[in-house]
Write a structure and sequence with these properties.
0% strand
Length: 141
Amino acid sequence: MKSTNKRLPWPVRSVIAGTTGTAMMTLVYATERRLRSSHPGPLDYDDSLVPGQIVASIMHLPHVTGREENELGLALRWSYGSVFGLWHGVLRHKLGEPRASAAFGATLMTATLTMFPLLGRTPRERKPNGPTQPRRSSSPR
């Protein structure tokens, strides 16, 4: 008997990988919220309402509630997770590893450092909790 390769095409595998990564990110956020129940507010930028606010502003949706911003943010997370999975698949198909992973990392950092500021939703600077900044010495050395 001749065996046939039943492997899925790489674009399908890439979308599945992106969806799996998004599922893990969502699971980790839920787990961390349970473990750090005393932590007020979102755990980080992606866990906040900001992604939903970005979607609402792009779609020109007036008067969006916090719940709707959260739902828009989740829709964005699940869609870009799949798209980024496909993008990594394209890079891997064209460049091979490890260049594909380096290019993918560069893509993510470039998007983070350019798209959020361009969309007017740059994260606010957080002030440190306590003496985490280096102390200045008043005496000369």
